[in-house]
Amino acid sequence: MTMIVMAGWLELDPILRDRALMKGTRIIEKALQVKGCRAYRWTKDMQANNKIWMYGLWETEEALNKHFEGNAYREMGEHLRQCGLDNFEISKFRADLEEPLYDTNGSPRADFSRT
Fold this sequence. Notes:
Strand content: 25-35%
Shape: globular
Order of helices and strands: EHEEHHE
Number of strands: 4
Oligomer: single chain
């Protein structure tokens, strides 16, 4: 199955970053209710007081489009603007192969040759 990974960062007013995360919880919960959303998270960057990281995992393009068409997505945009959204870079990745990071010996593997 092909999955869509959404990942990136947002820069906000440093004074409002924690507020963005706390009040964003309700928006994140709404996104998680969209059929086909397997994960959706925001987290603060511990090295930059104005940055949060965003991660989402979607089962299909249709599921991600449903998120974009929903009220939660519009609320998110308004909420982040109110928290001083200054800059962002968010990308989407299409993933068509999934394997465990660790092999049977407990060693991390970067290759995908375990077929």
